[in-house]
Every structure is written in structure tokens, then in C-alpha cells.
Amino acid sequence: MDARPELIALDVDGTLLETGSRATPRVRAVVRAAVEAGAHVVVTTGRTLLSTKLVLEELGLAEGNALCSNGAVHVDISTWQPRAVHTFDPVPSVGVLRALFPDMVLSVEKVGVGTWATGYYPGSFRLGEFRFVEDSDLGAEPTTRLNGWWPGGSLAEMVELMAAVQLPGAGWVHGEHEPWLVASKHGVSKGWALERLRAELGVPHAATLAVGDGYNDVEMLSWAAHSVAMGNAVDPAKAVADEVVADVTADGVAEVLERWF
């Protein structure tokens, strides 16, 4: 990609920062430089709105757009009010998952409020309200995301069991290392949400750049005119990317952005 990108989609965990750590000064500086140069820098993440807000504040960004919950929530970061929320009825999927994984911890996002969950799941972002509920409560209203963590098995076992499963009205992606899955409204993904935003902003597709590392980044990387996988990315992300750079511990995302900013 020779010309300076106008729309830059950046994943968070494993890309902008190591999970549980802060973005480095180098990464923060080049992200702000891109914004100051007029680029639309769009943090595009599987995190919830509440968790994404922490990252944007750390980066020092106060206006623009962010795409949370794998594209299900589009938020105006100047107000942190959702501009678009794409929900589905989780009840049928809860039934499918509970039959397949009796001990799976299930949870749903309450956008901008918190999480309702059937149990504790390690590594969760305890932001906002965290309420323990029964399976029947998960479907009290449509949700942007249904999460599942399977304490009784491995990621490989979970993926194998899910291979032939269709979740009603929903698609799903799994985590990189732990037996996690996230279900969203059918058709919703990072790439889908970015295309909607690109059209709204009037940015030519040729001026789009995306950087990511996870399974939930594959659609985003496939969408971008120029796609970059981190050195620590999963193989499917690397397979669709135009290039692979240094991993997150070596500021690979900064390596990319410093070419123009």
C-alpha cells in the first residue's frame, strides 16, 4: 500500500496491546499521529463498549468511531453513545449450547451497562453491572453477544464439537487459546461493520487498512484493501493478510503505521 490510508481498523488485544497490559508509548504516539493527520482510526474489537472505552481513553482519542463486540456495536466515542446496535434473540442458541456443553458458563452483554452471566469466567472484564442469572434470564431481551466459556474442556474439543452445529439466527467465533466462543447476530462481523462505516464516511475501499491477530479478525483482514497480521496472529489471520509484521511485544502495529505517520 503506497498511498496513506484514510480508514485504519485496529484490533485491540494482541494488536494494539497485550491483553492485560497498556499500549506502549510508541503505539500511542503513532495512533495519535494518524488521527492528527486526518485518518479515521477505528478501534475494531471483540471487547464490549465499556471495555473499549478504557482503551480509547488510554490512547487519548476523544472523537470518531469505534466498533465493539465484533461489529455488533458502533459507538460515537465523543459521547460514548451507540450509533448502531445489532442484536439477536439468544434463547435458541442458549438451548443448543446448554445441550452440547452442560457446564458451559454463558453470558450476555448489556450494552453500556454490564454483563449477565450464569457463572464466573476467568479473565472477564468486570466493568459495570455484573449479575449472576439463570439460563432463562439470558433471553430477557435481545443481545449483541452471547458468550460461552467451557471450563470442562479444551479449545480443540470445543471447536470439534461445534463444527457441525448451527446456532439459530447467529454466527460464532472462538478465542485463540481458551475454550471461548462469542455468538453474534448472523452476518455481523468486524468486516461487515467496517464496510458499512466506510460507505458512510465516503472513504474509497482502496484507502482502507486493517491490522489484527485473532480468529475474529479474519473477516476484517479479508475486507481491507491492505491487511496486516501481527506476528503473533493465528494461522487463518496470517493466511488472508497481505503481510505479517512483528508481534505485539515488538510493537508490530506501530511498525505499520509509522510508514505514513
Provide structural commentary:
The chain is of the alpha/beta class and 261 residues long. It has nine helices and 14 strands. The relative contact order is 0.18. The model has no long low-confidence stretch (mean pLDDT 95).
How is this structure best summarized?
With 261 residues, the protein is of the alpha/beta class.
Topology readout:
Blueprint: E1 7-10, H1 25-36, E2 40-44, H2 49-59, E3 65-68, E4 73-76, E5 81-85, H3 91-100, E6 105-110, E7 114-117, E8 129-132, H4 135-138, E9 146-149, H5 155-162, E10 170-174, E11 180-185, H6 190-201, E12 208-212, H7 218-223, E13 226-229, H8 235-240, E14 243-244, H9 252-257
Parallel strand pairs: 1-2, 1-12, 2-3, 7-8, 12-13, 13-14
Antiparallel strand pairs: 3-4, 4-5, 6-7, 6-9, 9-11, 10-11
Element order: H for helix, E for strand:
EHEHEEEHEEEHEHEEHEHEHEH
Helix/strand-derived category reads alpha/beta
Uncertain regions spanning at least 5 consecutive residues: none
Helix content: 25-40%
Count of strand segments: 14
Keywords:
261 residues, alpha/beta, 8-stranded mixed β-sheet, 6-stranded mixed β-sheet, 9 helices, 14 strands, 29% helix, 24% strand
